[in-house]
Specification:
single chain; 431 residues; mainly alpha; 70% helix
């Protein structure tokens, strides 16, 4: 029966991936119904990752409030200034900007606003825009595995903490290996494709007048934008300090509760001190994208956890020897699973508990963690699509065979380097 149930899980994941967006959530919930009919125990309390969902809702609501106050616009303006400070190095500066914006905000959706700037600076320097755009998109996704307030990080911490790996060491190692991987990916991206002026597609579009030089962007920064950004930054520092203290001392609020309450309290302070329009919060792109991600995790994680919890003993026996003999296989599984699930948080919540149940060590799981970021494998993820649409030179395009697109090689290299470095570092740090 386990094979029938596994087939159901895979079929509904595939259906969800084909539907895209919140279709993944709907397909996951439908799969739970079928698993229940096939004898699996359907228990919402153990199947739904409530802490992960709560953190997504809290963080996204705060980020949307920051966007309403103009804080994100200010962040983008600062980013553009950085990118234009050394435009010839745009292929290396772009991933730095999108990586740390995502680490800071806990969501890759903030990278959307920087993509037009990256494309414009590249065009001005006669640099093929696909080079910085491809690695910038990849970095915004890989950074989710390094953000202290992302749903994926929270889910990961919940799995490895019982194995003796603390929250701050986890975050520290993740930032180092993920950032290093992205920088190596940037080196690869800087060599991809012919030079812009030699690209026949660019030449055709130039001749047709389809390539426009827009120049430096103009921003209408709201009066309280800087204050809201400072409030959010201070909150992030408080969360990190509190998490460090809770690892050593028992406090009234655990780490997950602290992240949720501090983030929402931060939004309240923005409302009281920055004249935030509450009615505008739910209209922000970050809010809509974050709520979609939460729904996806609800459906997919519930589907995966229902299957795993009902077959835990069989899974332990069948998979333990394989993964323990070839630990790198965990990273391969996570990479392809994330491409299907379209969510780092959903992939982490669904697969890391399975790895722990099979007896995989915490060090191996942390080393493999960057592999949950393979969302660029299929060129249909929103950030990927946005990068393609914003490049009017035509250099960022999908090839005839779908998989031959400019994101795949920098992305695979970034993840492979991060995982390899992770195995090296974790063998010393988490012994």
């Amino acid at each position: 029966m386990i094979w029938v149930q596994l087939a159901v899980v895979l079929i509904f994941i595939f259906i969800g991936a084909r539907l895209g967006g919140i279709g993944i959530a709907y397909a996951g919930a439908a799969g739970v119904i079928v698993l229940g009919l096939l004898g699996c125990e359907v228990d919402p309390t153990s199947g739904i990752p409530s802490d992960v969902l709560g953190i997504i809702l809290a963080v996204i609501s705060c980020i949307a409030g920051l966007q309403t106050c103009g804080g994100l616009d200010l962040l983008v303006k600062i980013s553009e200034r950085m990118l234009r400070s050394n435009p010839k190095r745009i292929t290396f500066l772009a991933p730095v900007v999108t990586f740390f914006m995502t680490v800071f905000c806990g969501t890759g959706h903030v990278a959307f606003a920087t993509l037009p700037v990256i494309a414009e600076v590249a065009k001005e320097q006669k640099i093929r825009p696909s080079r910085p755009l491809s690695i910038a998109v990849v970095a915004s996704q890989v950074a989710i595995a390094a953000s202290p307030i992302s749903a994926a990080m929270v889910a990961m911490a919940g799995v490895v903490e019982p194995l003796g790996i603390g929250y701050l060491p986890l975050v520290g190692v993740a930032i180092v290996i993920c950032f290093t991987g992205c920088m190596v990916g940037a080196l690869v991206a800087s060599r991809l494709g012919c030079e812009l002026e030699d690209d026949p597609v660019y030449q055709e579009r130039m001749a047709a007048g389809l390539v426009e030089m827009r120049g430096e962007g103009s921003y209408d920064i709201k009066p309280y934008a800087r204050r809201s950004l400072v409030i959010f930054g201070i909150t992030l520092v408080i969360v990190m300090v509190y998490a460090a203290v809770t690892s050593a001392v028992e406090l009234p609020l655990n780490r997950n509760t602290a992240i949720m309450t501090f983030m929402m309290a931060s939004a309240l302070i923005m409302k009281l001190t920055c004249k935030m329009e509450l009615g505008e919060v739910t209209n922000q792109a970050t809010f809509k994208g974050g709520m979609s991600a939460a729904l996806c995790i609800l459906g997919v994680a519930w589907l995966g956890n229902t299957f795993v919890n009902s077959n835990m003993d069989l899974i332990k026996g069948a998979g333990a020897s394989v993964i323990q003999g070839q630990p790198w296989l965990l990273a391969v599984v996570l990479f392809f699973a994330s491409a299907l699930l379209y969510s780092q948080g959903a992939t982490t919540a669904a697969f890391m508990p399975v790895a722990a149940a099979m007896g995989v060590s915490g060090a191996v799981m942390v080393a493999s963690f960057p592999a949950v970021t393979g969302l660029y494998l299929l060129p249909t993820y929103p950030t990927t699509v946005a990068a393609i649409e914003m490049d009017d030179t035509g250099s960022t395009r999908i090839g005839k065979y779908v998989f031959n697109h400019p994101f795949i090689l920098p992305g695979v290299v970034s993840v492979a380097v991060a995982v390899a470095l992770g195995f090296l570092i974790c063998s010393f740090v988490f012994t």
